[in-house]
Amino acid sequence: MRAEAIGATLESLVTKGSHGLVEIPIGVSFCTVFSPQGDVLATCGKRTVVLWDVAGREKRWETTTLKDPSELAFSADGARLAAKNTSGRLTVFDARNGAVIKTVDKGRGEGSAPAFSADGRRLVHGSWQGELFIHDLERHTESRRGFEGEMVRSVHRAGDRWVIVTSAAPGGGKPDRVGVYEGALEGQPEVSFTLADLGHTALSPDGRHLAASRPHHGDIVIVEIATGKLRGSVKAKFGGTGAAVRWGPSLLGSVQDGRIQIFTPSLEAVGGADLVYPSDVAFSPDGSRIALGSWSEGVVRSLTDLLG
Question: Is pTM beyond 0.70 here?
Answer without folding.
Answer: yes
